[in-house]
Design goal:
184 residues; alpha+beta; four-stranded antiparallel β-sheet; 2 helices; elongated
Amino acid sequence: MLNIKRIARQLGATEGTEILEAALVLPFVFMLLLGIVWFGRAFNIYSTITQAAQQGAILAARPACATCTQVSPWGSTSFPSDATVTSAVDAVLKSSNLDTAQILVSPNPPPVSCVVPPVPCTTTSDNITICRQVLLNFSASATQPPQCGIIVSFQYPFQFYLPFTSLNMQKIILSAQAQSRMEN
């Protein structure tokens, strides 16, 4: 009878230790999993806004009339308008359920222009900056002539929700910028 009490006492002490260890470790494991989820979401948003900027730049750099024989200058109406470029960017953002009203203006400095006088960058009502006639390769050499194109840029905020950490409710600003050379 004495051995049974001793074994029961040892088992009770072991089970209590395991419960205590689980109680101490599980919150950290839970926080690690939450961190993985939220950093994954931040990466997903960054990937989406980068693709949206790329789609906008590609669309803005291509003339609307692909079969026209005349080479169109930058100022012509054959290139998509800023509203069309904004619609393309918004479509990519909305496909990932991102709120287009949260887009912030990108504070990038104005790029080097290909023409004189330089064409100023325009910022749409949706806070998307579109720079046309931009020099894309700054180190043009004899083997590679300078290329002109378009830069589309904007920013998007992201807020972490990681309770009991210093990252809880921290807002970070993700920047997206893409360029595309002009096609004639």
